[in-house]
Amino acid sequence: MQLDAKMPSGPLTDKWDKHRFELKLVNPANKRKYSIIVVGTGLAGGSAAASLAELGYYVKNFCIQDSPRRAHSIAAQGGINAAKNYQNDGDSIWRLFYDTIKGGDFRAREANVYRLAQVSNHIIDHCVAQGIPFAREYGGLLANRSFGGAQVSRTFYARGQTGQQLLLGAYSSLMRQVAAGQVTLFPRREMLDLVVINGQARGIIVRNLITGETESHAADAVVMCTGGYANVFYLSTNAMASNVSATFRAYKKGAFFANPCYTQIHPTCIPVHGTYQSKLTLMSESLRNDGRVWVPKTPGDRRPPNEIPESERDYYLENKYPSFGNLVPRDVASRNAKAQCDLGKGVGDTGFAVYLDFKDAIKRDGKDVIAQKYGNLFQMYEKITASNPYEAPMMIYPASHYVMGGLWVDYNLMSNLPGLFVMGEANFSDHGANRLGASALMQGLADGYFVIPYTIGGYLAGTDRPEITTDHPAFKETVHNVSERINKLLSINGKRTVDDFHRELGHILWEYCGMSRNDEGLLKARKLIQELRGEFWENAVVPGSDKDFNQSLERAGRVADFLEFAELMVIDAFERKESCGGHFNEGYQTEENEAKRDDENFCHVAAWEYKGDDAEPELHKEPLVFENVKLTQRSYK
Ligand SMILES: Cc1cc2nc3c(=O)[nH]c(=O)nc-3n(C[C@H](O)[C@H](O)[C@H](O)COP(=O)(O)OP(=O)(O)OC[C@H]3O[C@@H](n4cnc5c(N)ncnc54)[C@H](O)[C@@H]3O)c2cc1C
């Protein structure tokens, strides 16, 4: 099958304007006739639901949490990128575009990334108009700080709570539409399947997580904004409910899954401290603006950090990458932290940590200035570790954090299944093989506020869709399949907890498909995952009933999907015989141990088609064409 990204023709800088003009419009009276399902209330889903309702469409908006405000986007700390160039330090739309393409190791589409950079400035204007309390300079202009992979300051922030503030903005817009009757909210619902009729996405099946009831919902189009699957690693910085289930079930209904092996390991997280830990905490990348990363020069040096003199410290990022220093991109910083620990220079009880030190910044700027920028992050660190980062350096280590893989979408953000749109972290589209910090919030809001309002109109106006209701046999059949699966989970009656399976799956992936991979390990991982999945369906314990609030059942469904999806990740990683961004295959590296791409054979998006539970998925390749940037070996030296 030929994947058509529906890329507009013409110069890169004009593509989006031209496309918007060429897209068919739905007139205001007709908009009222259409209903749209939006799954997810994070920054992508919340902004989309609000914008589509504002346009006049009737929207049904679903989420797992009790309130849209609890979507995982609320956890975002550091900031959101935009090319405003308020700092006058050389930024531009083109530079943001170039940094993002290069940061993604030349594995993203030029046109999507350029549009993202263009729209970034509108997002800031929109959010300021909503009243988002971005940090400001003394003169009143919005303040900026730097994030990895960029030499300009373009990150807008609200202390360490940027995601929360942006989500409150989207939520306010959403609730305005709820009050106006244009949006109906369905909290505490979990999407368990997609309904496809005549090849078009026409609805979803959800479980009411309070009553256990299964509900059917029909619409003219379905917009999935269900976030990322980093929790497949068990320990991650994501919210506990983050999952792959919604996108994976859509994959099983025919939507292609793109680049599942592109996952991001974030370099600055609080290290793992115990076997029964279920969550990891991020220390925002913004801290690398002022914090200096180091390890002792001598392996095995166990002296407390304050007793190690300057001459015996290795500021390895500053030494190895003088141009970007501590602000190299995440994949580079993570791999280097691992390399130092592998050399025996790691610190802390486990030896799997490096220092992030603010001593020099506090001496230079004063404690008050540092507290103003990062106060809540320092407080969070102290609460968790009982160590005061104003006095002793933080200890950090890489952890699973974000995914660049997701459902394949075209330039309109529509999957290969007509009528199924996918946005935010749930799609694969804009970050290539590595996401630069502060770009996910930008993408989610670009998709929701500025892209989908145009592209969904083009679909609705340009497609014939028969009238359907939830009485259609396809709904009945899907409900039946969903109920069967729930009953199957409840009847396993085994002895091992679902969490225990999940923890073991996480270990396998972290070990063999984590920060670095090799072919031998990937083959081993695939076998281990198959065995673990087999054991799950024979020996998992899922207590309780389906007629009630049952979090064990919820978790079991999500872990069952992770156990299938993990194999797809490993298959994808094995297939890609190169290293790029977050996918680092040890067999493909430069002499300096950096990721080595193979542009001749792998300059493509790998989109996988489900072919049945007992069949191999089929690989479809979308070639990536670069007409405006030259593909180079990424260097941050
Ligand atoms: C700790 C942390 C800090 C971060 N900081 C930054 C930052 O500073 N800057 C930045 O750019 N990015 C940051 N990121 C990344 C960024 O926060 C996320 O990529 C982004 O918020 C994802 O938004 P989203 O709308 O796609 O998904 P989410 O916010 O994850 O929302 C998903 C929504 O889908 C719903 N959902 C999921 N599955 C189902 C289902 N099966 N049925 C029904 N509903 C479902 C959920 O209930 C939720 O409403 C951070 C990430 C983490 C983990």
Description:
By secondary structure, the protein is of the alpha/beta class. 37% of the residues lie in helices and 15% in strands. It has helices spanning 15-22, 28-31, 43-55, 93-103, 110-130, 162-179, 245-252, 316-320, 330-342, 359-365, 367-385, 440-462, 473-490, 498-512, 519-539, 551-575, 599-602; strands at 35-39, 58-62, 80-81, 155-156, 183-186, 189-197, 200-208, 214-218, 221-224, 257-258, 263-269, 292-296, 313-314, 354-357, 394-403, 406-407, 420-422, 496-497, 540-541, 604-609, 618-623. α10 runs antiparallel to α11 (367-385). It is globular, with a radius of gyration of 24 Å. Flavin-adenine dinucleotide binds next to α3, α6, β6, α7 and β15.
Topology readout:
Blueprint: H1 15-22, H2 28-31, E1 35-39, H3 43-55, E2 58-62, E3 80-81, H4 93-103, H5 110-130, E4 155-156, H6 162-179, E5 183-186, E6 189-197, E7 200-208, E8 214-218, E9 221-224, H7 245-252, E10 257-258, E11 263-269, E12 292-296, E13 313-314, H8 316-320, H9 330-342, E14 354-357, H10 359-365, H11 367-385, E15 394-403, E16 406-407, E17 420-422, H12 440-462, H13 473-490, E18 496-497, H14 498-512, H15 519-539, E19 540-541, H16 551-575, H17 599-602, E20 604-609, E21 618-623
Parallel strand pairs: 1-2, 1-9, 2-5, 9-17, 18-19
Antiparallel strand pairs: 3-4, 6-7, 7-8, 10-16, 10-20, 11-15, 12-13, 12-14, 14-15, 20-21
The structure holds flavin-adenine dinucleotide (FAD).
Flavin-adenine dinucleotide is lined by residues 39-45, 62-65, 71-73, 75-80, 162-163, 189-191, 225-228, 237-238, 242-243, 245-246, 282, 401-402, 424-426, 438-441, 444.
